[in-house]
Amino acid sequence: MEPVAFAVARKDYEDRRRRQGQAKAKAEGRYRGRKENVARNGGIASMLKGGVSWSQIQAATGCGRATIAKIAKRAGSELPEVSPASWGGETLVAPLLQLRDARLAFDQFFK
């Protein structure tokens, strides 16, 4: 049991040292992290402005809800309220067609 505890303690120590090094590098401007996928995020922002739901965006792009939330917060956009009366007819068909087109565009772009 002791070797397992030692291994866990060692990993914790190494992780803490790595994070300290990253924090120091960020403060000095040498560590920037992963580059942003500008094309994907632009598509997500335009879908948000078009009123497409988060679940539909998630299905179209394959990204997580946290990514969508980050982009929505950055854009300062709130999704429009959708009433149950607008769930049928033209109000539902148009966003689904946009979603289909967006999915095809993303599939072609990230192929």
**N to C succession of SSEs:** HHHHH
Estimated share of beta-strand residues: under 5%
- Structural class of the secondary structure composition? mainly alpha
- Per DSSP, the total helix count is 5
Distance between the termini: 48 Å
| Tertiary shape | elongated
Gyration radius, in Å? 21 Å
Report the biggest beta sheet as strand number plus sense, adding barrel if it closes: none
Mean model confidence by pLDDT: 81
Task: State the share of residues found in helices, binned by percent.
Answer: over 70%
Low-confidence stretches: 77-89
Number of domains as seen in the coordinates: 2
Give the total of beta strands: 0
Describe the structure.
Helix 2 packs across helix 4 (65-75) and helix 3 runs parallel beside helix 5. The longest helix has 27 residues, at 2-28. The radius of gyration is 21 Å and the shape is elongated. The chain has 111 residues and is mainly alpha-helical. It is 70% helix and 0% strand. The protein folds into two domains: 1-32; 38-109, no CATH class. Mean pLDDT is 81; it is low at 77-89. The chain has helices at residues 2-28, 38-49, 54-61, 65-75, 90-109. The chain has five helices and no strands.
Short description:
This protein has 111 residues and is mostly helical.
